[in-house]
Amino acid sequence: MSLSAPSVTVIEANTKPVQLIYAGGTFGSYGRPLAPLAADEFLPALQSLLAAPEQVNFLPTISWLDNSLIKDSSQLTPNDFVHFYQLLLAAYAQGSRRFILITGTDTLSYLGAFLAEAFAGSDICIVVTGSMRPLLNSEVLNSYQVDENGDAWDNLTESLRLASAGESGVKISFGGESWPAQTVQKIHSQDFMAFTGHTRAAYPANSYIKWLADTRRQHWLDDQQLLKVDIEGRAQQARIHALYCLPNDTSVLANQLQALLSELPCGIILLGFGAGNVPYSPALASALQAAYEQGHMVICASQCPFGGVSDSYAAGSWQYDYQVIAGGRLTIAAIYARLLWLLLRYDSPARRRQRWTYDVNQTSTAIKKR
Question: Which end of the chain is more exposed for a tag (fewer CB within 10 A), N or C?
Answer without folding.
Answer: N
